[in-house]
Hints:
- The chain has strands spanning 24-38, 41-52, 57-68, 80-86, 93-102.
- With 104 residues, it is mainly beta.
- The chain has one domain (24-102): CATH 2.40.50.1000.
Amino acid sequence: MISLKKPEQDCSEPDCPFHGNLKVRGRVFEGTVVSTRMQRTVVVRLEYTKYNKKYERYARMSSKITAHSTPCVPVKVGDLVRIAECRPLSKTKSFVVVELVKEA
Ligand SMILES: [Zn+2]
């Protein structure tokens, strides 16, 4: 079970883990918001390191994933957010923004 911090704001979004019927399970990531141009969807960049055996060093990698953004957790570009895995909400979306960790 993923423990979530309930936001102070309310919303009437059905796909909200706090005020709707969306269940979250699976993985939780922290990443930076890089785009908020879609409706109720944000693009989050995840940064991680990957070990390279040949050079015996870590390489910095990043990937972008789309996440559902509910009105009760307002986010902007540059914000550090926590996202949690949920059921697939669309073709590319199976994560939801659950917490604003650090504002830009
Ligand atoms: Zn909500």
